[in-house]
What does this fold into?
Amino acid sequence: MLHKVAAEVFQISLMPRNSINCYIIEGVLVDSGIRSSYNTVKKAIQKIPVYQHVLTHAHADHQGCSDQICADFEIPLCCHPSEVLRTETGMVTQDYPRPQYWIAKLQQKYWAGQGHKVENTVVENDMIENFRVLETPGHSAAHISLFREIDGLLIMGDVATNMNLLTTATGLRLPPNIFTSDQERNIQSLQKLAELNPAIICFGHGPVMQNRNRKFEQFVAKCSTTF
It folds into this structure.
């Protein structure tokens, strides 16, 4: 379940076929899957110690075991300032377009973890080790991504997925509208990320992608013209 992606970057695959992922980057845990991901994440950070935990955004499949991990390993939790309320309360579906929809209710009940106090916040151009913070709103109101310029490695979060969430077939896709607060803003964030010409892209959902032949930029260009 633990796969080395690049120097000091490890993918933790939390569900079959990489359908939910979190990452360890230079001693920092990025996201934590769903509540039941705890044992897998725990085993990973027992092998590769971390000193901090950061969320790309506070949805149930990204903060699920954050409270347990931060409490048990005594590490601080970090997110964007505008994600603090949902991170600390655990009410993580409140920025969905339809938070009362049955899927949102199931996520809140069975996937989401308890809220946890946020000790640090990050905004555009802050650094987490060698990764630059990029504000990439749209999927959530204050989503962030992380980019390491030295090797072009991008931690995407959910600005795009690299799988069909229903069939698990690999392929670049926009995040589902039902879980995305503003898809138009999200596509603007994709355009921002495409300008970086990332070499390696790590997704919240789907396998890591080597961005050969500018496949990601072509996907973004298509999204920009068809949305």
Observations:
- The mean pLDDT is 97.
- The helical segments are 38-47, 60-63, 66-73, 84-89, 102-111, 183-194, 215-226.
